[in-house]
Amino acid sequence: PQRDIGADVLEDARTTYELDRRHVFHSWSAQAELDPMTIVGAEGSYIWDGTGRRLLDFSSQLVYTNIGHQHPAVVEAIQRQAADLCTVAPQHANAARSRAAQLIAERTPGDLDQIFFTNGGADAVEHAVRMARLHTGRYKVLSRYRSYHGGTDTAINLTGDPRRWPNDYGSSGAVHFFGPFLYRSAFHSTSEEEESARALEHLEQTVRLEGPETIAAIVLESIPGTAGIMIPPVSYMQGVRELCDRHGIMFIADEVMAGFGRTGRWFAIEHFDVVPDLLTFAKGVTSGYVPLGGVAISRRIGETFDHRPYPGGLTYSGHPLAAAAAVATIEAMEAEGIVENARRIGEEVIGPRLREMQQRHPSIGEVRGAGVFWAVELVKDPVTREPLAPYGGSSPDMAAVLAECKALGLLPFANFNRIHVVPPCTITEAEARAGLDILDRALETADAAVAG
Ligand code: PMP
């Protein structure tokens, strides 16, 4: 799609930028060092920046516009709901909320049939943890290094990335363990089977030494996203389920990023044939058009609160505008075969092309992914696997690749030494190929940084 961005819009964009720099305090950032891109419009897989230039959005913003930008059915549903009934407090029943809960419950695996709505992902994790603690009467929660679970207190403590460090007050009950990640194995494994077995043994020992009777839950992203899209072995995920059952520990699957079609299934946990006790979601449930998150609750956990009040709630839990956006998003995804499109694009376009690029670019250490959820791990040295930017940091080499992508019209998602190819699930084959062509060219910048 092409669109004319008028001179007035570009003038407004300059004002927007100036006001932003003066008054908007940004997440995770040193405020004086920021240079945010102004976005003045978006449609489908594209965005327009403050200079009127079009870029392919391979980031899906923060990996959430699963049905693309400005999907007309969702925009219309929000408008209709706004005209009809903007808000209903959570203690009342409401048509949009009931229908959203039904559509979500019908798609989550097993008996995850009750939905507690939140405003986003972090508070979904907070409430899943609270439910698991109340159900078990235990307080510790285990999570993996190389994970992200959100920016609020409990969620950031469970997160296994450097953003936890300045937020760790040392009394959260959060315990971290190493998950399976063959490319940078903590266990010196040389095969997927070995990695799975050793990671399970390590988790078993962690549980034993922490004391199973103190552990309420293990929280795992079904496929860790921000941390690098490391697809765990099926045997590992099934082993974790078995371990949880054996020790009375609740399995919380965090599907905030991987859920709602991103991996080519409604939920990433389906790849492993595992049913968790609690499942958290956000992002893709409304494609981020209106903020919404939630926890899908199994019957086992649900029964705990059949005759005992659940001590938790949020003013905007199941907000009608968000619920209407969720209903329209899910219905459009179903009607247009969008989950299937994500699977096919991953299998037929993104996966094969990234693997082919890996043969030509010495800077590509590994490519991993499924659906429209792929990571390209960049290295300075393919033998030692030294990352192109350090864990938790950035580097001029990495910044140069990203600047080149942007100059060529592509906006990818990046974290440390990785570029993530995470376009909307609606992306067409032609758009995917065009974006990958740009990435291919931009990676020549990274190749120049490879030793020898
Ligand atoms: N869990 C996962 C797996 C996530 O990727 C994120 C966000 N990137 C969160 C939780 C937190 O979600 P939110 O930012 O909506 O609070």
Automatic annotation (TrEMBL):
CDD domains xrefs: OAT_like (cd00610)
InterPro entries in the record: Aminotrans_3, Aminotrans_3_PPA_site, PyrdxlP-dep_Trfase, PyrdxlP-dep_Trfase_major, PyrdxlP-dep_Trfase_small
SUPFAM superfamilies in the cross-refs: PLP-dependent transferases
EC numbers on record: 2.6.1.55
Keywords annotated in UniProt: Aminotransferase, Pyridoxal phosphate, Transferase
Any one of the GO CC terms: cytosol
A Pfam family reported for this protein in Swiss-Prot or TrEMBL: Aminotran_3
GO molecular function: pyridoxal phosphate binding; taurine-2-oxoglutarate transaminase activity
Signal peptide, first to last residue: none
Domain of life from the UniProt record: Bacteria
Record-stated family: Belongs to the class-III pyridoxal-phosphate-dependent aminotransferase family.
Protein's name in the database: Taurine--2-oxoglutarate transaminase
